[in-house]
Amino acid sequence: MKKLRWYDYITLNLFWFGLNIRNTALGSIFMPYLVGLFAPEAIKNSALGGMRAAGLVIAMLVQPAAGLLSDRSTSRFGRRRPYILVGALLDLLFLAAIAISWDYWSLLIAVLLIQFSSNISHGPLQGLIPDLVPDDERGRASAIKAIMELLPLIVVGLTIAKLVGAGQLGWAIFATGATLLVVAIITVMFVKEEPLHEKPTTPFWPPMLRVLGMLAGIVIGALAGLLGGGIIGGLSGLIALPFADKATALAIGVGIGGAVSMIVAVIAGVWAGALATLGQDARRQSSFTWWIVNRLMFLAAATSLQGSVFYFVMYAFKLNNEDSSVLTGNLTTVIGIFILITALASGWLADRIGRKRLVGVSGVVAALGNFLLLSTIWIPNLMMIYIAGTIIGLATGLFMTANWALGTDLVPAAEAGRYLGISNLAGAGAGIVGAGIGGLIADYLNGYHPGLGYFAIFASYAVLFALSTVSLLGVHHTEKK
To answer: What are φ and ψ of residue 478, in 5° steps?
Structure first.
């Protein structure tokens, strides 16, 4: 491998910037804005959650498949860049479909298609650093990658969200697509790949069967969560019945049962998926499996929180769709700034405090920030929203770097790719659990009492943050010096 020049670090990673501009704009702004226009008020959280969950299932399947196909590509243009360019061009087509969507179902089809196309790019993109960066330079290249992934949180809040807030959805989608196209062209023109002359003999299907195993595990976990949550929720409602009317007792049962269902879904889903993909190694490497539980609990709370903020601030501050876009964008910017600051500092902190300890602290701090958000449901306070966002951003930045470093310590060195690939799938599973269950709970309880649904799911996310710290009790780790 050739030694990199300073600008190679940027060109190798620039597509991450465009990809995450698209992801953040779509997930935080475009989807909730349009679902709010198309879906009935009483079911908008469920409609959005179902759309997110369906899209993440597609992502879980397409991303690893595209990555594996690019591993085997003998194209004279290189292994990764053709997939990156094709995925980006399809993204432009499906962004246009989102712009002209006229009802919920046309939007759903467009969102599912763009999840397909974006992951055609995403899977192969992950191979650029291993392919082209010498071992002793990968730390620097990965640091630039992390910056490119985090900057879009800030940029979308300052630009895309403001355009939507001004009623310029079409221009916001155009700006998103134009950014993606520019970074795709730069990547194709300036990243130099050596074509693969001989196709690898490694079979395609065994890794894909592991993906299907993890997906099956998440489905099993979700079903177990719904069953367990239903039982606990029913018992809670029966206990509350002597002290409250039937409707109130049912609401209590649904709230408690929903929180339990998320927790059970995470733990059961991780263990079922790990057993399906790793077999008996999941038990022998139980610290690694509990690390995935920790990661999935934190990410389920964080990604679900990001997806719920739009409708939460709309309710708390009595905003319309456009004003909610602006406030969501401002909050995303604040969170992004502090994620970026602490992500850059957390490697240094982890070496001094310890990775496991820092991951544990991040869960507790995020839970505290989430509880602060709860107070604004009944007493709207804009400053409190930003303080809570700052705290959650600080915690998330600490978690993202320290948790990954902890995971790299726990995996068997000879099989790091196999193990860490499973953890990447867990990130998508986190969104499926939080979005799929949280939306249903929010709509049901909001129908009983306005705002109660948001209180219940935000309290559930705070509990997930806290339990992510508790799950570290299953992780036995000696800090590397």
So the answer is: -105, 125
Which tokens hold the place of 337? 């700034």
Q: 271 with 282: CB under 8 angstroms?
A: yes
Please enumerate, as own/partner, the contacts of 82-85 that have beta carbons within 8 Å and a separation of 24 or more: 83/120, 83/121, 83/123, 83/124, 84/15, 84/121, 84/124, 84/125, 84/184, 84/187, 84/188, 85/184, 85/187, 85/188
Q: Give kind and range of the element (H or E) at residue 140.
A: helix 138-158
Token pair, residue 453, equals 């649904």
Tokens of 2: 């050739």
Architecture of the domain whose range is 205-481: Up-down Bundle (1.20)
CATH of domain 1-202: 1.20.1250.20
Are 399 and 305 in contact by the 8 Å Cβ rule? The answer is no
Q: Where are the alpha helices (H) located in 191-245, listed in sequence order?
A: 205-240
Token pair, residue 114, equals: 């763009």
| In 279-320, alpha helices (H) | 281-284, 286-316
3-state SS, one letter per residue, for 337-374: HHHHHHHHHHHHHHHHHCHHHHHHHHHHHHHHHHHHHH
Cα–Cα dist 245/274, whole Å:
43
- Mean pLDDT per 10-residue section of the chain, whose length is 481 residues: 78 93 94 95 92 88 85 84 95 97 97 95 85 77 82 94 95 97 95 80 74 74 72 79 72 77 75 68 75 85 86 91 94 90 76 83 93 84 90 89 76 57 62 76 86 86 91 78 45
Q: Which of 270, 272, 269 is nearest to 289 (CA)?
A: 270
Query: Is the Cβ–Cβ distance between 104 and 39 less than 8 Å?
Result: yes
Residue with tokens 């196909």: 69
What DSSP designation does 200 have? -
For 1, the 3-state DSSP assignment is: coil
Burial class, 208, CB count within 10 angstroms (exposed 0-12 / middle 13-18 / buried 19+): middle
The DSSP code sequence of 167-178 is T-HHHHHHHHHH
322, 164 Cβ separation under 8 angstroms: yes
Pinpoint the residues of the chain covered by CATH 1.20.1250.20. Answer: 1-202, 205-481
Handedness of CA 188, 193, 198, 201 (dihedral sign): negative
Is 18 within 8 Å of 182 (Cβ atoms)? yes
